[in-house]
Amino acid sequence: MSDVRDLIAAEAEASEESRHDPLPADAVGTRRSPGVTSPRVLSVRLDAEVFADLSAQADRMGTPVSTLARMLIVRGLGSIEVPDPQAVEILSTLLADQVRNSVRSEVSHLLRPEFLRDASG
Asked: Model pTM?
């Protein structure tokens, strides 16, 4: 492992030493395609219990917390356009009660009540 760290340190040092050098003549810059926007960062505040529940679920899935949060947001937004009761139910089972109740509260004005029912009732 030390060899890898030494290599990274050496590359970082070399990079810093040449950071003001002009680009090579054959360097080609790229731009995003027209109409493609750059990704945005979203900061979301969660209380400690909700974050702990989300973190625990991410650990069980073997994924970073931010990746799980992004997946849930993207899936949730997708279900707003075409509500799918199964997708809502799957999302509900992934989340702890506190997170699920928070999501239900936020989307209750967007989805019909039958899509928000618990499996038990």
From this structure: 0.39
